[in-house]
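ok posting inputs for the adenosine-5'-diphosphate job
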Amino acid sequence: MAKKIGVLTSGGDAPGMNAAVRAVTRAALSKGMEVIGIKRGYVGLLNREYEQMTARSVSGIIQRGGTCLYTARCPEFRNMEGVLKGKAVCEELGLEGIVVIGGDGSFRGAGDLSSVGIPCIGIPGTIDNDIQCTEYTIGYDTAMNTAMEMIDRLRDTAQSHDRCSVVEVMGRKAGYIAVNVAIATGAEAVITLERPYDLDAIAAKMIKTKTNKNGKTHFIIVVAEGVGQAENIAKTLQEMTSIESRVTVLGHVQRGGSPTLRDRVIATEMGYHAVELLEQGIGNRIVGLKDGKVYDIDIQEGLAMNKPFLDHRYDIFYDTAY
Ligand code: ADP
Ligand code: F6P
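and the output
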């Protein structure tokens, strides 16, 4: 039975991380545990940068993007020396467990810390939804909604000018955001790393559509960040079709903003579950969503899983595109 736990956010921030920090803090306090908020991820752990959390420390943050605990990347934690230093700080502070909110890199650190005797629980917080063992990661819904709104705006101007708007969305190597956003914005094409793409075919379709009397004269092409070719794709399509093209890289706007209801609720459920595990002295687990329900899995097992791509949704996109 842990009596004192830590909570930290690590890696890239994601909208909804605050809701998770709030849930962890409030759930632990209501179970009679003490909570330490560690600043800037593993960097703050190694530097003893922390604050005692009270119910008030997490007031008014559920609706805010970013993370009130700040986040950072900590190269030192990638080797055992750093991990052992982290263990020593946990012992010094009397921490009997840590909730780590972050992505798979952060979970590797959490696994290492668990292996040296500090039970850690990972909560998936990343807009990319690229964590293998969970159907959902905190921030994904907010980021997709932000991207959707931005692309709706791009369509207005693309339409006015009869242009092609090539939009790069985030996702690191993963195309989950891209496929969903392409469907939701009625894009004309989506290009991801997971599926082969054919620019000749996309260009031919654009020309055919434009020359059709009742045809569309503007186009939205969503490109996943991992493809890394938005500029070239726009240039090539313009050369092939003679349709004027513009590139927009949505970038970090997708990481900010007030979290959606879905992100707030799932973050709260996951935070609560993480505390229930630590309360029982259980560590080395990742909390995730499986068949729509919160569950937990061993960290190493979870990280070794393969995540299916949205193949069916990708096919639906192309079967319902223009
Ligand atoms: P994310 O958690 O979003 O995937 P990173 O991959 O940048 O982000 O990882 C965040 C932090 O987690 C790193 O800066 C490092 O401190 C820690 N980390 C990453 N990979 C490992 C690893 N293999 N072993 C231990 N710690 C790691
Ligand atoms: O993992 C979240 C993410 O926003 C990715 O989509 C993107 O590739 C990366 O982080 C950007 O990282 P940084 O904020 O370090 O530029």
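notes: The longest strand covers residues 4-9. The pocket of 6-O-phosphono-beta-D-fructofuranose (ligand 2) is lined by residues 12, 103, 126-128, 170-172, 225, 255 (CB under 6 Å).
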